Amino acid sequence: MRMKMVDCDGVKIRTIYEGDPKNYPVLLIHGFGACAEHWIKNIDALSDQFYVIAPDLACHGFSDHVSYEGKPPYPMTVKYLLKLADKSGLKNFCPVGSSYGALIAALLYFERPQQVNKLVINGSGSCFNTEEELAAGLKGAYNNAMTAMRDPTYASCLKRLQNTTYDGSCVPGDLVISQLLSYTNPTMIESYEAAMKGMMDIPASRPYRILERLDQLKVDTLVCWGREDPRGVYASAVKAVAKMPKARLETFEKCGHLPFLEYPERWNGVLRTFLADQAAKTRSAAE
């Protein structure tokens, strides 16, 4: 893995990346309140076939913090990811999102359907939960995160991550340390609370929901879901996939919110298969 700061019109986005830029690009988008190291078991493993980019979202990890202007964070997050894609020269790419990041990935498609030609959604109540389920899930996520942020110790950060998984032993120490270090940013809590308030404002967030327009997600889509996901209702994912024109569901048993972290070898293999056609086309065009 390699790291760099990418200047996106004055906002620096910390990016982990690896692989040949001539290969098909995969943009890994972490969940809310997380960081790029959530993909620590996937970046190098996928870099032999793909150009893998895993940024810290704005106001997350070690990226710059921006003002959400009292509004939900979705449009600002999409804005800077698209700037990053442009800076990285991504003509076509697959956004791979986790939780909140999966909603952002879907919004990237709606913003630029000709550029996003594959889509991967991982355990995302943000995408498929009803408004009532979403409100309850956001409250649980907020309480879980604030416990760690207000008392940023290794133990509290580890507990926060373990609370989202089926078997907490899957959480790597490097991820915990990175998350802990990011909490030392004095604006982290302020940014997190501002964004959470924006997301909890259900009426203001409605324009960014996708549950009511799943039939418009006409991109080839892979949905990966842990059967025991505490943040996203599995039955909701099943119903949602049935409404999407070009989607299929990959279920991970005895798995929580982070299938790519809990079962990385299987998840990496599933993603390779899903993206094989685009990888081949990109290599052929480069030759």
Outline the fold blueprint.
Blueprint: E1 2-8, E2 11-18, E3 24-29, H1 43-46, E4 50-55, H2 74-87, E5 94-98, H3 100-111, E6 119-122, H4 125-128, H5 131-150, H6 154-162, H7 173-182, H8 188-200, H9 202-205, E7 221-226, H10 234-243, E8 247-252, H11 259-262, H12 264-286
Span of the ends, CA to CA: 25 Å
CATH topology description: Rossmann fold
How large is the share of residues in beta strands?
A: 15-25%
Report the structural category: alpha/beta
CATH class term: Alpha Beta
Estimate nothing, just give the exact number of structural domains: 1
User: Element order, helices and strands?
Assistant: EEEHEHEHEHHHHHHEHEHH
Task: Strand order, main sheet: write it out.
Answer: 1-2-4-3-5-6-7-8
| CATH superfamily caption | Alpha/Beta hydrolase fold, catalytic domain
- What is the number of strand segments? 8
Low-confidence stretches: none
Helix amount: 40-55%
Report the biggest beta sheet as strand number plus sense, adding barrel if it closes: 8 strands, mixed
Give the radius of gyration. 17 Å
* Overall body shape: globular
Report the CATH architecture. 3-Layer(aba) Sandwich
Global mean pLDDT: 92
Q: Total number of helical segments?
A: 12
